[in-house]
Write a structure and sequence with these properties.
Blueprint lengths: L1 H10 L10 H16 L10 H4 L1 E8 L2 H4 L8 E10 L4 E9 L6 E11 L4 E13 H4 L4 H9 L7 E4 L6 E9 L3 E6 L4 E6 L1
Antiparallel strand pairs: 1-2, 1-9, 2-3, 3-4, 4-5, 5-6, 5-7, 7-8, 8-9
Length: 194
């Protein structure tokens, strides 16, 4: 699809948005809007098999996520959003690459509920921040299995109360391997499955 190719080309040199200039962000925004206008799945919440899975972030305007790269002696690694439709759960996992033996991760588990055909309300429940070697991190899927098994980690591991962090996400584009979302803080997210 030409629109997807144009978007992938536009975001290719931006390192998930970290290196995007104002001009880049504007051009990418136009390309995203054009692709959203041709969304092949206008009611994404009715297609759980397409939503399900581990999604890797390709691009975002979220300053909260991009700000993780500004930690001294650390570089932002891969960022995943893993959706488990049957359990109405979302797991956000950001890998942080640091000095030898100081690689870490930040993970937030949330529960979601449909608010419309394309919007989900998100309620964050648990955060885990720590060094990958102490957590025993191997992959997003394994971390999720450990979380669901009730494992406590040798890390900063805490519950997030009802009053703290809630939001929503509109799924504005969905096909077999690409998802675009827009969050309640105005951020855009482009992700690929796999």
């Amino acid at each position: 699809m030409l629109g997807k190719a144009a978007l992938l080309n536009a975001i290719a040199g931006t390192n998930r948005g970290l290196l995007a200039t104002d001009r880049d962000r504007q051009a990418i925004g136009v390309t995203i809007a054009q692709l959203e206008d041709r969304n092949p799945t206008p009611r994404p919440l009715e297609t759980p098999a397409m939503l399900e899975g581990d999604w890797r972030l390709l691009y975002t305007t979220s300053q909260e996520l991009l700000g993780l790269d500004r930690v001294p002696l650390a570089k932002l690694g891969q960022i995943y959003q893993c959706i488990r439709v049957a359990d109405n759960k979302i797991y956000n996992i950001a890998e942080i690459n640091g000095l030898p033996y100081l690689d870490g991760l930040i993970s937030v588990a949330a529960r979601f509920s449909p608010a419309s055909d394309r919007r989900v309300e998100v309620k964050f429940e648990r955060a885990i921040i720590g060094l990958t070697r102490f957590i025993g991190y191997q992959s997003p899927n394994r971390l999720i299995q450990d979380i669901e098994a009730g494992r406590k980690f040798a890390a900063i591991d805490f519950g997030i109360g009802n009053r703290d962090q809630q939001g929503w996400l509109d799924i504005t584009y969905l096909d077999e391997d690409m998802r675009i979302g827009r969050g309640n803080e105005g951020s855009v997210f482009v992700l690929t499955k796999g």
